Each structure stands twice: as structure tokens, then as C-alpha cells.
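User: Can you recover a sequence for this backbone? Please restate the input before giving your answer.

Assistant: Of course. Working from this structure:
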């Protein structure tokens, strides 16, 4: 995992867009992001770690998603565009990367990163938890392939609330997230 301020230079979203300004795990934690490395090895012990983590955090369900041009066919470009639309969820977003690589961009909410994008580069063995209410977006990198395990506290659901909609900022999950960040600083 590598995190840094997004450079905001127009161009292919699948490129690194590394501004050269690194972001620490502490800063990510202050924004409510949980990161954990669980290396995938032949001995399958990583499965025990995922099961233990899931039990600790109350994740009862999981599924797997593979994002590739071959797998999604003609829908690939539209799907990537929809993932990259700035949005929030009313539940945590938990991803464990099984193969491939990609980026989660999260929106900073406190100085010096207020309203700046922070890019988190993830690859095989990286686990990330984005808190409910955080504005974010996702894209594969230039390899155009990622397989991730998605963990859920209840029935699997993935309802994005686009920031472009007028009522998204007023959602309870957003208000609770901002309060959580304020209280942790």
C-alpha cells in the first residue's frame, strides 16, 4: 500500500497521479480508514486472518468481484466510470485484494488535505476499510485487472450515493462521519 495526495493533473485515471506528497497511515487513520496487510500465501493462513478480522468487526457476509475488460466485456468502461464517480455509502466499504491492483481515492476533510483527493494504491494482500460517509472513488490501475473480496456486516449491498446529487451531503452517514473525524482530532 502506498498513499499520497492525488496530483489533480487531467489524464487517464488509471495512471498513478502521484504528487510526490506521501500520506501516512496515521493520517489515513485520522480519516477513519483502516488498513491492514495480510499476505496471501500458499499455506492459506491468510484465510484464518480474514475470518478473525471479520469476526472482530462483525462482517457476516462476503463475496468476490473481478474487474477486467474480458470479464465485464462491453460493460467494462461504463462500470469503471461509475466506480470513479465521487460517492459515499451508508455502510463501510471493505475490500481485500486477492490479485491485481487498483486505487481508492478518498476525499480529505481536514487541513491540510481538506477537499483534496488522497490516492491509496492497493495490491494483492492489502485490506482496506473505508468508513461509512466518506467520499471516495475507485479505479483499476493501468493493468486493468483486480479481484477483491468484499466483506459486509449484513446482506451484501453496494448503494453509491453520488456527491453530484443535492441531498448526499445531508445523509446521516455523512454527518456521522464528519463528527467522527472531528472527535478523533
Amino acid at each position: 500500500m502506498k498513499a499520497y495526495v492525488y496530483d489533480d493533473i487531467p489524464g487517464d485515471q488509471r495512471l498513478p497521479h502521484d504528487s510526490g506528497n506521501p500520506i501516512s497511515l496515521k493520517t489515513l487513520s485520522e480519516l477513519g480508514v483502516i488498513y491492514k496487510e495480510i499476505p496471501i500465501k500458499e499455506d492459506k493462513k491468510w484465510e484464518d486472518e480474514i475470518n478473525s478480522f471479520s469476526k472482530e468487526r462483525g462482517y457476516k457476509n462476503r463475496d468476490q468481484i473481478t474487474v477486467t475488460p474480458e470479464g465485464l466485456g462491453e460493460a467494462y468502461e461504463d462500470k469503471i466510470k461509475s466506480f470513479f464517480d465521487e460517492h459515499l455509502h451508508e455502510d463501510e466499504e471493505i475490500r481485500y485484494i486477492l490479485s491485481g491492483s487498483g486505487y481508492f481515492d478518498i476525499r480529505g476533510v481536514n487541513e491540510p488535505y481538506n477537499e483534496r483527493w488522497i490516492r491509496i494504491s492497493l495490491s494483492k494482500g492489502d485490506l482496506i476499510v473505508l468508513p461509512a460517509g466518506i467520499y471516495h472513488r475507485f479505479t483499476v490501475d493501468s493493468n486493468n485487472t483486480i479481484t477483491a473480496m468484499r466483506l459486509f456486516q449484513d446482506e451484501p449491498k453496494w448503494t453509491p450515493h453520488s456527491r453530484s446529487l443535492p441531498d448526499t451531503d445531508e445523509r446521516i452517514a455523512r454527518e456521522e462521519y464528519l463528527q467522527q473525524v472531528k472527535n478523533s482530532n
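That completes the design. The longest helix spans residues 45-57.
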